Amino acid sequence: GLLQTDDRIALKEITRQLNLENVIGERVFGSFAENLAFLLEALKKGGLFCDRNSSRSVLFILDEFDLFAHHKNQTLLYNLFDISQSAQTPIAVVGLTCRLMRVLCRVTVSNKTIKLADLLEASHLCTMDSKANILHGLSVLELCLIIAMKHLNDVYDGEPFNFQMVYNEFQKFVQRKAHSVYNFEKPVVIKAFEHLHQLELVKSMDGPSVRIQKEYQLVKLLLDNSQIMEALQRYPQCPTDVKQWAASAFA
């Protein structure tokens, strides 16, 4: 799956391992389809693997099987499965993958069947946005800085900004609420901002040779509005006023 990334490369590797290269080399094939047809015929006969007088069973092990399954055209895969159904064809196909693993771990002696709910949960976890998932573990202060950056993205149409601009945007929110729950000292806010940088939610835009005070270094937020809003909905016990602040900017 990682090395043989399409059907044509996979077919070439199969013919190499089955010692069919010389046989194919003596014939002229005009297309992938003709090469595949020749391979399938050889597999059905089961007699071209070591010498022409002995038949050998063949075990196909497809590692990273999910990558094969994601191919737009799965000609090779479908044909291998098709001929493996015949009792006359001595082949078996085994797919290996680390995905839907959560589902298999739930199969026990007492629980022998895979349930639809297990598959749906595993599918959701596989498609989960990793960056948005990081937001669930942030502090409220860090989440507020993400929202402040979201404001700046909306106002400046995705142009880079710096910490001082983020801090000013955050201060507007604090002053509007007129209470001390979000009133952090600036060094604390800087630390929170640096943590977002370490988590790779924020990216520096200035080159390493540029000497600028860190409060004024240009950065870019690596999250879009939909990721932020979805994470806010899932954030455990997210303050209502923080959600409203984000939603008002979104609107």
UniProtKB/TrEMBL annotation:
Localization in the cell: Nucleus
Signal peptide: none
Domain of life (superkingdom): Eukaryota
GO molecular function, one term: DNA replication origin binding
InterPro entries on file: ORC4, ORC4_C, P-loop_NTPase
Membrane-spanning residues: none
Keyword annotations from UniProtKB, A to Z: DNA replication, DNA-binding, Nucleus
Any GO BP: DNA replication initiation
DNA damage in keyword set: no
Gene Ontology terms: cellular component: nuclear origin of replication recognition complex
Residue span(s) of domain Origin recognition complex subunit 4 C-terminal: 67-232
Family: Belongs to the ORC4 family.
Protein name: Origin recognition complex subunit 4
Species the sequence originates in: Polypterus senegalus
Lineage of origin: Eukaryota, Metazoa, Chordata, Craniata, Vertebrata
Gene: Orc4
